[in-house]
Design brief:
Elements (H helix, E strand, L loop, with lengths): L1 E4 L4 E7 L2 E7 L10 E7 L5 E3 L7 H4 L10 E3 L5 H4 L2 H7 L4 E5 H11 L5 E3 L4 E3 L4 E6 L10 E5 L4 E5 L12 E2 L4 H10 L10 H9 L5 E4 L4 E3 L2 H12 L2
Helix pairs in contact: 6-7
Bound molecules: fe (ii) ion (2 copies).
């Protein structure tokens, strides 16, 4: 494991070609049993960071060698761990622009961000150079009206945010074994964290149709394997 920030315990692993998981454990005692906050860096001509991390963890999570090269700072939804440090990143990277859903821009980011965001509609694509990401709206899956995800086409990596959230801080960066079971157990302990209405089944099927080979999770281990199978299994659990 490469520990890039000894104080914070932040570590970096490549989970797909040119896609890096920057993982920072929650401070000791902050979350019983431990927890991780993962940011996903897509390296390309126009580098994209998915999830800003918490504003109060910004200094600690600021591990990129040259943050000024960042072009895009994306996030699934407007919440402290996803977007809390957005303005800190915009200040550190003068060329960077937020990437979010159109709803996120309308209800929060147009006002909150120090520079105007690039709002993407459902299915809209953004070229990063050799890589290309597609925005997928996912309202309320698992939470927030403005929620959505990015799918990187060349590596078939779904930046799946809070989906498949697993507890603990000791997991491996990338696994081919079960991530659904631990995430379901966590959901059942906090059922209000996931909306189960509003077309969740159709949204999960839309995500599954991308046939992801890697699921880059925000909390816990990323997953390599048949991502569509996992998303469909998750849908069965969510919707009776
Ligand atoms: Fe969230
Ligand atoms: Fe999160």
């Amino acid at each position: 494991m490469t520990v890039t920030n000894a104080q914070a315990g932040t570590n970096v692993h490549e989970i797909a070609a040119g896609i890096y998981r920057i993982s920072t454990p929650a401070p000791p005692g902050a979350v019983p049993g431990g927890f991780t906050f993962n940011q996903i860096l897509v390296v390309d001509d126009e580098p994209l960071l998915f999830h800003t991390g918490l504003r109060r963890m910004f200094r600690l999570a600021h591990v990129l060698g040259d943050a000024a090269k960042l072009r895009w700072v994306g996030f699934s939804h407007f919440e402290s761990d996803e977007s809390g440090a957005l303005n800190e990143w915009l200040a550190a990277a003068p060329l960077a622009q937020a990437v979010c859903s159109r709803v996120a821009a309308m209800v929060s980011v147009n006002d909150y961000a120090d520079r105007p965001p690039r709002a993407l509609g459902d299915g809209e694509e953004l070229s990063l150079g050799s890589k290309r990401v597609r925005w997928l709206d996912a309202p309320h899956v698992p939470h927030n009206w403005e929620c959505g995800y990015l799918f990187e086409k060349t590596t078939r990596t779904l930046l799946c945010g809070d989906l498949f959230t697993q507890p603990g801080a000791d997991g491996v960066p990338l696994t081919e074994s079960d991530v659904l079971g631990p995430s379901l157990a966590m959901w059942k302990a906090m059922p209000a964290s996931i909306a189960v209405e509003g077309g969740a089944r159709a949204i999960l099927e839309k995500l599954a149709a991308t046939e992801p080979a890697t699921l880059a999770t925000m909390h816990g281990s990323s997953y390599r394997g048949d991502g569509a199978r996992l998303l469909r299994a998750f849908a069965k659990e969510l919707v009776a």
